[in-house]
Amino acid sequence: MALESDRPEASKYLPLLLLLFAGSGCSALIYETVWYQVLELAIGMTAVSLGFLLATFMGGLCIGSLLLPRTKYIRMHPLRLYGFIELGIAACALLVHFYLPLVNRIYVAGASHGMPGALLRAFIAAVCLLPPTILMGASLPAIVGWIKSTRHGVSWWGLLYGANTVGAVFGCLLAGFYLLRLYSLAAGTYFAVAINVTVALASFALSTRTPSVTVAPNEEPPLAGEPVEDRGEAWPVYVAIALSGATALGAEVVWTRLLGYLLGLTVYAFAIILAVFLIGLAIGSSIGSMLVRTIRARLALGWTQMLLAAGIAWTAWIIAKSLPWWPINPLLQISQWHTFQLDMVRCLWAILPPAILWGASFPIAVAALAGPGRDAGRLMGSVYAANTAGAIVGALATSLVLVPWIGTHQTQRLLLCTAAVSGIIVLLPYVRASKSMGMAAGLAAAVMAAAWLSSSVEPVPGELIAYGRRMAINIGKSQLLYTIEGRNSSVAITQWNDGAIEIDVNGHVEATTETYDMKLQRMVGHLPALLHPNAKSILGIGFGAGVSAGTFTRYPNIEHITICEIEPVIPPTSTRFFGKQNYRVYENPKTRVVFDDARHYLMTTNDKFDIIASDPLDVFAKGTAAIYSKEYFESVKQHLNPGGMFTLYVPLYESDVRTVRSELATFFAAFPHSTIWANTINGQGYDMVFMGHLDPPKIDVDSIVAKLQRPDYAPVAQSLHEIGVGSLNDLLSTYAGRNADLGKWSAGAELNTDGNLRLQYLGGWGINSTLEDVIYRQMLAYRQLPNDLFVGSPERVESLLNAILATGR
Predict the structure, then answer these.
(1) Mean pLDDT of the region 403-413
(2) Are strands 640-651 and 684-693 parallel, antiparallel or unpaired?
(3) The whole model's pTM is what?
(4) Which residue, 558, 557, 513, 515, is CA-closest to 540?
């Protein structure tokens, strides 16, 4: 036990202790970012897969916080124990880094669809994440054992929790904006390991200079003066802090989704949202830690939860009725740093108030249970476990059940009511014990206010789901026809004033009926289907408007069309509004739709195809880079039959030179025999189709012309005519180059690999660019006339080559 003379020493070492805990929080968020990214590559990007990752990560924290205080190691000097825990986290992180590829191979060998596949995903996530996260969960109970359970001691506990959260903010931003943007997943891991080791060594050194137990300085008799009702049963506090965790993570899921529409789908936007949420928790825990020295903790906990109802209503109102209507044109500023500053301001304005209240709830809940003789580690561990368990339930229930069932609007109302119920559970014993009419009236008024606030929560405007960050500049130019929220994505259908129909996913355009857009979507299908001598089986990656996949229904020789789509609400929605354009491919008897992440599906299926056609979200969208990586392209090659072809949609708009060069270099690295085809608007660059061939291609124009003249190919000719392609020259003159010439333009570009997923960082950085024609012209400058690519009658070949030369002038 610490002596009176030890107390000044305890105060002297508190800043160092806070710094160590901040370092621990920093490394934890770096690991979380890296592990989520790595495991997403293996088990997919669906909401179910991410749910397993989240449950495992937070479940490990919960287990560790409960388990450690009940082991014999708790008798060790807390700072020494904390040092060993940090070393254990570092060791586990290195094991995950080096052995995860082996685990991935084992998973792929046994993975399947349906419930067995889901259970295997959960098992893989647990194998990888539970050991290090259990140690992370044990760190806070371990360190608080150094400080006795007194009023000022509990305040110190809260400061440690706040310091850990401040470190997490720094780790989140460091990983998202620096380590992974400029380096790799391995670099992020090594940096976090170095932090753990440094923290461990400092903890060992500090343990030799301090007593094993200390009392915070200037301590008054612990909790002795509190009214009897403040020392009631423990279960209301545990229930309240668990519900607080549930509402916090549930709201984070909803608000991240909604703010993602507004800020864009980039990795930077999601990093900013998470960082702001953590900033609020850090501020709140610091405030709560200061307040617990003087307040009646249980009463404060109850009213904090009641205020949370108002905080949730505030954020819901700001996201739905304020932020979307700010007069902001995101295209005016090319500098991403200015965009990030604006995004940070908007997130702070929306999220900070309730996040502060959630942060304050934790130290106040600990203070409500603390008292003389209470084991510090067990007390902190039990409160932390209750909060984390509630967070797991809230996150999973919100993402997997509530949003797809009742939508984000009603989910926010439910979260608001849950916060109010949490407050009632804690405050009601006060009303009964004190028999105070004033307190009873105050609680009744708070309940009525919460009910009114719940009824006032409104859904986000459908235009936000449609246009996202471009809402301010697109509003009034179209009519909203339909919106629907799915488990993974939200979909909107709009009709522009010129009559064009548009499908948007998560605030970004997916496809339209505009002629130039229809041409691109059908080029993804027509180019390989015409060039392949006898394609029978097709795999489409991404349903979108269904136009690319529907193109294959025009070909008489094609027997099977498999479409892999991550969001189940998209195919029926697209069929309803784009049925004419996509030839109702969703209802075609040849079509089979697999609802899964495309990468995961290719990794776990043994099927092979003659053509694989990919029309995914733009590369800047978080997670999309995984289906633009060299390893993914190699997997595509393995699922192609001999003579097979792979087409990939690549936009030039909302992109920059560095991004497109990386896309092209990565594609060439996997498919050295590639041809590139351009889709232009009035001769100006817009987007492209990359086409990979297993063997050096030879395009027989005579054979293709003969096909198009056959009666059974009349639907093909009609489909081409609908997009303004009246002859074969109109289609093949879109040729823009191949590896032999464009490879010189892309030489030296950064390859997008599973180890860095560089494209999502490059793409997110260039999202405000308007360089589509500049990029196209640079590529044309390297294009050479392909004298050996096209074969056939000299007249037809010469005519086609002249048409190619005429493009881009």
Answers:
(1) 95
(2) antiparallel
(3) 0.92
(4) 558
